Amino acid sequence: MTFEEWVKAQFNRASLEDLIVEQELAARWLKAYTESLAQLRRDLAPIDEPCYQWLVSLNEILKL
């Protein structure tokens, strides 16, 4: 399964189970991703990479 397929499956599952709306799920995912890059979730996602640069890049993308 590709990442895109996995994301669609997660959205579909959440929608079918009335757990969360797509916009809220996307916002929560983006928050979790950003926290992982900022190394605020080291217990769940220990990343030893150029995280600061990734955060700068993400910030630039979100400004568009």
- End-to-end separation: 29 Å
Average pLDDT, to the nearest integer?
81
Low-confidence stretches: none
Give helix % range.
Answer: 55-70%
Radius of gyration: 14 Å
Order of helices and strands: HHH
Structural classification: mainly alpha
Question: What count of structural domains?
Answer: 1
Number of β-strand runs:
0
**Main pleated sheet:** none
Annotation field: number of helices: 3
* Percentage of residues in strands: under 5%
What's the overall geometry? globular
Textual characterization of the structure:
The protein is mostly helical. It has one domain (3-63). The protein contains 3 helices and no strands. The protein has helices spanning 3-16, 22-37, 51-63. The longest helix is centred in the middle third of the chain and has 16 residues, at 22-37. The protein is globular and about 35 Å long. It starts with a helix and ends with a helix.
